[in-house]
């Protein structure tokens, strides 16, 4: 890895760049960040990153090009760089609902494309990133894995599951945040001050997630440990289920997946 260009250096693009530098994969000077407004990249410049508002110039000599723009913007960006791309450059797309074939239709059939779907926890190096491709080499996939492992965990999946990954992992951040918010509001209802209730809900949610990650156990097995006969936990769980907790979560994820699949064509 000698040079990497990130087109569209918003929260995800800049977080990825910082993660790569922190883990030592790249030096700041080996990463070029682009944005339409060069003034918005002053912090990045001060940290030693290359910056540009010209995407065609920015990809010159880059081994890896990350397309970190919205699905509605990616077509214009690809049309802009298509004539300047070389066949030995690896293209990573993080745009929801944009297939490898969609990218190749504009950048060329001989283009090497890998899709990646991180989430906003990338900002603290805790992203759950799913990656997929149609026919990129194992070396290309390994390169993308190393890049995104610098900002969290990575799972390689089949490309047809990428819109599902968007719903479960990218949209999922908002779903779990809403659940934490609801728990904190419940805490206020039963007597806690808002700031205390929120802190308690956040730490409880973090503890639950870490418990599963560190023990590699199933949620239901951990639930069984805290539900006793005629107890308060099972009473609360059953009330939530009677009001559609699991059903609402599942329906929301399914609807988000349907929406993600159509973003590119909107």
What report would you give on this structure?
Catalyzes the reduction of 1-pyrroline-5-carboxylate (PCA) to L-proline. This is Pyrroline-5-carboxylate reductase. The chain has helices at residues 11-22, 42-46, 55-58, 71-81, 100-107, 138-149, 162-170, 172-189, 194-215, 219-225, 232-242, 245-261; strands spanning 4-7, 31-34, 50-52, 64-67, 90-93, 112-117, 127-132, 152-156. It has 266 residues and is of the alpha/beta class. Helix 8 crosses helix 9 (194-215). It contains 12 helices and 8 strands.
Give keywords.
266 residues, alpha/beta, ProC C-terminal domain-like fold, 2 domains, elongated, EC 1.5.1.2, P5CR_dimer, oxidoreductase, Pyrroline-5-carboxylate reductase
Sequence-ordered SSE layout with sheet pairings:
Layout: E1 4-7, H1 11-22, E2 31-34, H2 42-46, E3 50-52, H3 55-58, E4 64-67, H4 71-81, E5 90-93, H5 100-107, E6 112-117, E7 127-132, H6 138-149, E8 152-156, H7 162-170, H8 172-189, H9 194-215, H10 219-225, H11 232-242, H12 245-261
Parallel strand pairs: 1-2, 1-4, 2-3, 4-5, 5-6, 7-8
Antiparallel strand pairs: 6-7
Helix pairs in contact: 7-12, 8-9
- What's the architecture of the largest domain in CATH terms? 3-Layer(aba) Sandwich
Strand count, sense and barrel status of the largest sheet are:
8 strands, mixed
Query: Kindly, what is the distance between the CA atoms of the first and last residues, rounded to a whole number of angstroms?
Result: 35 Å
Q: How is the CATH topology of the largest domain named?
A: Rossmann fold
* Outline type: elongated
SS field, number of helical segments:
12
GO molecular function: pyrroline-5-carboxylate reductase activity
Catalytic activity: L-proline + NAD(+) = (S)-1-pyrroline-5-carboxylate + NADH + 2 H(+); L-proline + NADP(+) = (S)-1-pyrroline-5-carboxylate + NADPH + 2 H(+)
Domain Pyrroline-5-carboxylate reductase dimerisation: 159-260
InterPro entries: 6-PGluconate_DH-like_C_sf, NAD(P)-bd_dom_sf, P5C_Rdtase_cat_N, P5CR_dimer, Pyrroline-COOH_reductase
